[in-house]
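TA notes, week 10

Several of you asked for a full example with nothing omitted. So below is the full record: structure tokens for the whole chain, then the designed sequence directly under it. When grading your own attempts, check the secondary structure regions first.
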């Protein structure tokens, strides 16, 4: 997980948290986790393979690369010492199976973040990003937009409060 430095003024990443899906010698691919659109996949796309369950998947702005394309990410939340994982590029049937089983969180992303070979490492050395571990709370569209402050400061006092948050705070 990358937390954008307060000095990073690029509007694509200002106060953002980016989950790194893949990182190798060719570069890195990430997804901006703090920009839910408030819409669902069904509001943005349609097709014969789109079930009602898939249409209800939340849609996020994933990054500045190919923003016209939709990427489906399947997140397996962290549990019992196992870190959060993410898979992209799965077929619709596999994504549907994860949704039906309820063992994963599926998020649709419009675009993604990408870095060429060595670019991300250079940006980290320059202080543009703080590297940290992802938290399951990032998978909740209600919480994700406000999480950057906690990640950048290292403040973890919020974690015990998560189970006590209302499902619909706008109803208060």
């Amino acid at each position: 997980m990358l937390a954008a430095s307060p000095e990073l003024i690029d509007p694509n990443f200002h106060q953002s948290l980016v989950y790194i899906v893949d990182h190798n010698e060719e570069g890195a691919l990430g997804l901006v986790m703090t920009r839910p659109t408030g819409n669902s996949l069904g509001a943005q796309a349609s097709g014969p393979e789109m079930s009602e369950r898939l249409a209800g998947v939340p849609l996020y702005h994933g990054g500045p690369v190919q923003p016209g394309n939709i990427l489906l990410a399947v997140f397996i939340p962290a549990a019992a010492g196992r870190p959060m994982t993410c898979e992209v590029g799965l077929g619709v049937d596999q994504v549907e199976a994860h949704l039906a089983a309820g063992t994963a969180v599926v998020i649709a992303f419009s675009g993604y973040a990408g870095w060429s070979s060595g670019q991300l490492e250079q940006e980290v050395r320059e202080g543009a990003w703080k590297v940290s571990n992802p938290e399951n709370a990032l998978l909740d569209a209600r919480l994700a937009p406000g999480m950057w402050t906690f990640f950048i400061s290292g403040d973890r006092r919020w974690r015990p409060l998560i189970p006590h948050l209302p499902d619909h705070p706008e109803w208060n």
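The longest strand covers residues 65-76. Use that as a sanity check on your answer.
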